[in-house]
Amino acid sequence: MLLDLRHLVRTLRRSPASAVAAILTLSLTLGAGASIFAVVDAVLLTQPPFANPNALVTIGERSIADPAAASRNVTYSTFEAWRERAKSLAALEAGDGTNFTLTQLGPAERVSAGIVTPGYFALLGVAPSMGRTFTAADEGQRVAVVSEAFWRRKLAADPRTIGQPIVLGSQAYTVIGVLPQRVAPGLGDDSVWVPIGGPANRAGQRVGVIGRLAPGVTSSDLARALDEVSRKSSPPAQAVVTSLAKAIARDSPRLLRLLAGAAALAVLIAFTNLAGLLIVRSIDRGRELAVRTALGARRPEIARQLLLEAHALVAIGTVGGIVLAAVMTPAVGRLALSQFGALSHREIDISWRVIASVSMLALVCAWVCGLVPMLVSRRRSVVEVLRRGATAAPKELALRRVFVAGEIAVAFVLLVSMMLVGRSMLRAIDVNPGFDARGVLVLSVSVPAASYDTPDRVIGFYATLQRALDERLGPRTVGIINEIPLTGDRDRISVSATRADDAREVVVREAGTGYFDVMRIPLLEGRSFEANDDASVLPRVVLSKAVADRLFGSDRAVGRQITVARTQSAEVIGVVGDVKQRALDEAASPTVYQSAWQTSSRSRILLVRNPRADADVIAAVREEVARLDGSVPVYGGRTMQQVVAESPGMPARRVLTGTFMGFAALAVALGAIGLFGVIAHDVACRRSELALRIALGADPMRILRATVGHGAVLVGFGLSAGALVSMWAARALGGVIFGIGRFDVVSVAIAVAVLVAAAAAAVLPVARRAARTDPLIALRSE
């Protein structure tokens, strides 16, 4: 064995460049692949950190009239009816996400929070690291459970935290427990949890419902039982039951599988390149191996040497890849999860499953890469090898060419996939969302419930703020809304032309004066909201064109009255253009805009279109808010263009495009190197033949064309195979392709052009060298 290792070192030292290239290729590819597989493992294969997570489900409602709509939270009364109906099938608890203004622990700060029923944590099987969680006696009480991250960041990790007060929304809450860090990510982005209020405070509140299925009960069983309640609601809805693991991952599984597929293709290219390299090395060492055989070396000994060489290269490359993955994975995981909408604060590291999987894959490929050169040359006799010299047998050359064609095919698939996703992203960006995002700054403001405990106080604060900002920044440059476009359509309401008509569910928004001007949403009929559209007059609404068409057809909508939520009448004062509320690649959502001066949402979003620098605008807004109430924080601070860029589907397309681009660049480079190696090796083996042909008067241009043609045949085979595989890849990408066909001529043409250019760059220098072969030098060398 020691002799084999010494021979291995001498062999690698004889051609260090190729060995280093193979190791670096393996390290980079395996490192990137292992990082992606680590994310896949954490999201798809790792169970949520709760007791018996397979029995946990999330439950929401979806309108029967709009089956494409996302599942939404339900009213507390619906939750109570569900709980009663599902007694024998599942235990149900509920919660709702919100924000609180945290004060007296430094500057006022907005923190995410969860309002939950007392049995919420017990249902999940979550035990606190300090203190306790909620009990039935805590309902409506001012007590709080905090995450470990909040405890460390805001409470200085003080072990005496239990029993101490924190001020949330101008009200003091007593900290009764701290949740361990390992379970907090599974609960969402919340930093603080408080118990749900008493019956008077939770009237009309919407909550998300979680359940733990009883033994033998399936999600379908529970959905059917709850449907009996939801279908009797107004308007009728259907219950949507989803496993908790799937709800946490959301859309990540499909996208992560695409990334894993790209990584698998890149790893395949790396190992194919290694196998091709070892075949070339075995061809170059043909005479050496033949002499060793003639001197008595047995084939098992030679095979062991070849396998040892392959295993050494793969082992070094694998170790390098795992080290690289350990460094890359935390950043890659955060990027992928935040872009795909999964829990972005979950820490992802290389797990033992990833290391074991990569190691097993590397071991298998090492055996294959080591055995292939031996198998293709096992039937060659010693005499044949010595007579051929450095010239390879046809089988060896044919296999090497198959590997190169395979690399080109995979590179073509990755290039086409990159172009499809990239062009789809550009098409989505070019879609008119119904508003103009350029030059609009987005800020958030929220008033505390304790200080603003009546609708008049809430409306008065925002109306005063609107007037102050109009005076300071200019009229019609500031708009107020409760939810900006492209962030979802969960806030819905039923509307009808009359109470006798069937109600239709539409998206509802609360807009202030100036909103439509700031967003440049076209006013098609009537007028927008004014300061006198307040609580002293009949409720007034502005309809989007889709709603007006649904309710009134071609008749004029302005001046008509509609029924909202089946009970309340509202006057239509205007009709505006449709806006995409959900995603750029989906249809615009029918929307009803209510006057912000007639509604009392405590959290509002300010949209500012002003030529000043963003920092100056933010400073001006904060000064005006502080002048009105110093305890109200201004948070957020991003542009509407960032909102569009981060809207559903766009981040995923961006990550997929970048990943495919990186792997495609590697594939093109390896394919070009492999093609260069095959052609260069063929020319080197035929040097004497070429010299003789030139000496006998052969046209050098003919030799150049023949050499280029040889490379063109390999590229043609690779592109043909790649075209077939790319059709399957396009189908797999169907969910993220928008605005272009699955067989996009432009994407295919660009991929072909890139590969042909890379192939030309690899083949032409070799072809020119072949055409310029000096016959005297070549013949003298013989």
What does this structure look like?
With 782 residues, this protein is α+β, with helices and mostly antiparallel strands. It is 51% helix and 17% strand. The chain contains 23 helices and 22 strands. A six-stranded mixed β-barrel has the order 3-4-9-6-8-7. It has a six-stranded mixed beta barrel with strand order 14-15-20-17-19-18. A hairpin with a 3-residue loop joins strand 18 and strand 19. The longest helix has 42 residues, at 299-340. The radius of gyration is 34 Å and the shape is elongated. The chain starts with a helix and ends with a helix.
Q: Could you write a compact summary of the structure shown?
A:
The chain is α+β, with helices and mostly antiparallel strands and 782 residues long. It is built from 23 helices and 22 strands.
